[in-house]
């Protein structure tokens, strides 16, 4: 039967950039990488209480039990057996007629009904000539280690998700603060316009436009408050507790450092990323499964035997004549109707090829993930600098527009437009800062940090 085999491709480029520096931020623990004490406390709690993580821990325990089961298969099975029974043969049967003629001792016939008492040790052992059972055990070990790496991968994602939600919560607090301050500013502007209307300097149209903008901003604050509630609840769910306020210092959000990124070299991904290590271990298990399936075509050797004492009267069990023993060796080889074995072998071979593709795909995905996050850090840093300058200019423009409007040298539409642009630019600046923080989180995760 022809099966397609090939080796996995572990190639990755030599470096992400021209430098090729092997210094890597994953050497930092997540406690050092995320210096916020409130965030660290949330992550610590989540690593203990998160239900999904605890479910995964039970899956690891199941995999560990599978190793013990596989290990027991290639060791001898030894047991102790004791029993008692009663049997009566019909006198007009072959056994019954023979029993009537037998004498245990002169003048003492064979008992009928016949009692049977026995105690002994029995054993059976399949000799693992082709390493089928050992390879099955090794495959179980690989899958157990794979489940551990799966847990590690879940830890990195859990830490990243909590950090992203935490910084999002801080960003929302800042957005709400911007909106509330603008509500005060727009409220004052509305009072000014009403006074000017009373002085016949503007019409009701101007009053309506200012009031409509104020109502729009007030409506925006309710949307942000709802997002804050949902984000807090999301964090509490990830932490594994019922909803409660999330402690955070949102005033420091604008000044959160990004820090230099030391990405190392791509080959380090093969060791650092848990999902790549998990895929590699699954591939090792799939290769062993092929060996096990191939060994099914070969003969199996089994030895069984027992030794003990057996008699129809318990008093005779202490006599040497009651000793029994047996030894049996079996050689079993598939001869006819091997289609099931062929199908099992073909299935194991196909799963191995599938595992190779999944392993290669995971490596490629990890490498591209790192490149994307590096690009985000670079581009959002530049974007933040540009947007900060825009915010500064628009803040100045709001002051200028208000002064010109008060002195009747500018139209109210210019004031409204400038105010709206200033609010939108400040909101966009907060969102860009959040994207920066997410990129900082995700480059650490993409490089394989956070699970140790």
TrEMBL record:
Pfam families in alphabetical order: OEP
Q: Where in the cell is it found?
A: Cell membrane
Q: Sorted alphabetically, which keywords does the UniProt record give? A: Coiled coil, Lipoprotein, Membrane, Palmitate, Transmembrane, Transmembrane beta strand
Which residues lie in coiled coils?
420-447
Extract the signal peptide range: none
Q: Which InterPro entries does the protein's record reference? A: MdtP/NodT-like, OMP_efflux
What membrane topology does the UniProt entry give? Lipid-anchor
Question: What is the superkingdom listed in this entry's lineage?
Answer: Bacteria
Recorded family membership: Belongs to the outer membrane factor (OMF) (TC 1.B.17) family.
Q: What is this protein called?
A: TolC family protein
Species of origin reads Wandonia haliotis
